[in-house]
Amino acid sequence: MAEYDLLLAGGTVIDPLQDLHGPSDVAIAGSRIAAVAPTIPREHSARVVDVGGRLVVPGLIDLHAHVYWGGTSLGVDPDDLSVRAGVTTFVDAGSAGAGNFPGFCRHLIERARVRILAFLNISFAGIFAFSRHVMVGESVDLRLLNVAEAVRVAREYPNRILGIKVRLGLIAGEGRGLAPLHMALQAAEALERPLMVHTDLPPPTRREVLPLLRPGDIFTHAFRPFPNGPLTDTGSTGQVLPELWAARDRGVVIDLGHGMGSFSFDSARACLAKGFLPDVISSDVHALCIDGPAYDLPTTMSKLLNLGMTLDQVIAAATWAPARAIGRPDLGTLREGAVADVTVLDDQAGEFPFVDVLGQVMTGTRRLVPVLTIIAGEPLTR
Ligand SMILES: [Zn+2]
After folding, report:
1. Engineering a disulfide at 238: which of 91, 231, 339, 355 sits with its beta carbon 3.0 to 4.6 angstroms away?
2. What's the rounded Cα separation, in Å, for the pair 70 and 246?
3. What is the pLDDT along the chain (382 residues), one digit of tens a residue?
4. Residue 181 alpha carbon to ligand 1 centre in Å
5. DSSP string covering 241-283, please?
C-alpha cells in the first residue's frame, strides 16, 4: 500500500508561515499534510497530480463572506463558490443571529463540502433584509440586539461560532451610533471571543469606533472609500488615521472585506504607499457583489497584488493570517500534520481589468486563478 493518498508534484509551494517559496512536492495522507519536500517519489503515492507551473498554497480562507444561501437574501451558495474561488474555509460574517443560526447550521454548514465557520450577528435575526429591493439594517431596532440570546447560542455551537459580528453605521444601524457596538462587546467579552466590526457611513465615525476594539477583534472594510475610509481626507490624499495605526499596534486585525461598497483603489493605494497593509484580505462576497465588483477571494487578492503587495504577502493575508485571526493553527499552512486544505493557483500574466466599488477601473498585469481545490485531502470537482 502506498504511503500517501495524493501527491501534488512539480509545483511552486508558497507557505508564508513556514517561509517557504520554491519548487516542492506536497504529499497528503488521509485528511492531513504528510510531507513537503523538493522531491517525493511518485511511487509512494496512490494518486499523483502534476501541478508543474502552478502555485501550491494553503487552502484559501475567506474571513468575510455571506454563505447562508436561501436563509438570507444576501447568501451565496458556498459549494458552488468554493470550487470556483479555490476557497477551503468560508467564515460567514454575521449572516445569521441567535434566532436563525440553528437553521444555518443544519441546512448549510453540516451539508456543505466546504468548511464553514461563522461570526454570530448580535442582532437576533441576522442580516434579514439585504437585497436590491429591500434594505433594512439589522442594528436599527435595538430590541433585536439581545446580548443574552447571542451568548446562549454561541455557547451551544462552540466549534462553529468563532465570535460576534456587529454592523454599525447609517445603513446598518440608522443613527444608533455606538449602542450596537457596546452591546456586541458585552457578548464578545462574556464569550471571550473576538468581535468583528463593520462600519458603513457615519455615525458612528471610525475614530469613535477604533479605540474601543480589543486585541484580536477584527475591523473589517478597512479600505472603504470616503467617508469612514482609512484616511483623513477624500480620494487618495490625506494620512492614515492615527486610530487605525494604534488599533493595528495593539493587535486589532485589519481586514479588507471588499463587498459592494467597501473597497476603493484610491484608499488602498494611499494606505499601501504609507506602509499600511491589510492583515487579512477577504472578499465580503454576497448576492449583490458576486457578479462584481467583488466576485470572489482570488479576484480580491489579485487586486492587491496589482496594487503592489508582494505575492507572498497576498498569500499570507488569505491563508495563515485569517487562520490566526480565528484561532485555527491547523489551517492556513502546509506544515506537516496540518489539515490537508490546499489551493492550486495559476499566476497568469496579461492585461486584466479590475474594478472597485466606485466603478474605477485598473488594468492589472497579473491574475490569480484557482485550478484545483482540496479540502481535508479530498479534491473538489465542479
Ligand atoms: Zn459583510
Report:
1. 231
2. 40
3. 799 999 999 999 999 999 999 999 999 999 999 999 999 999 999 999 999 999 999 999 999 999 999 999 999 999 999 999 999 999 999 999 999 999 999 999 999 999 999 999 999 999 999 999 999 999 999 999 999 999 999 999 999 999 999 999 999 999 899 999 999 999 999 999 999 999 999 999 999 999 999 999 999 999 999 999 999 998 778 899 999 999 999 999 999 999 999 999 999 999 999 999 999 999 999 999 999 999 999 999 999 999 999 999 999 999 999 999 999 999 999 999 999 999 999 999 999 999 999 999 999 999 999 999 999 999 998 6
4. 16
5. PHHHHHHHHTT-EEB---TTTS--HHHHHHHHHTT---SB---
Ligand 1: centre distance to CA 36 (Å) = 35
* Ligand 1 centroid – CA 63 distance (Å): 10
CA of 116 to the centre of ligand 1 (A): 15
- Largest pairwise CA distance in the chain: 65
118 within 8 A of 92, measured Cβ to Cβ: yes
Q: Which of 19, 57, 54, 24 is nearest to 38 (CA)?
A: 24
d(CA 24, CA 368): 19
**DSSP summary character for residue 285:** B
pTM of the model: 0.98
List of residues 6+ apart from 326 with CB closer than 8 A: 61, 63, 91, 117, 162, 194
Distance 288 CA to ligand 1 centre (A): 11
Positive/negative CA dihedral, 119, 124, 128, 134: negative
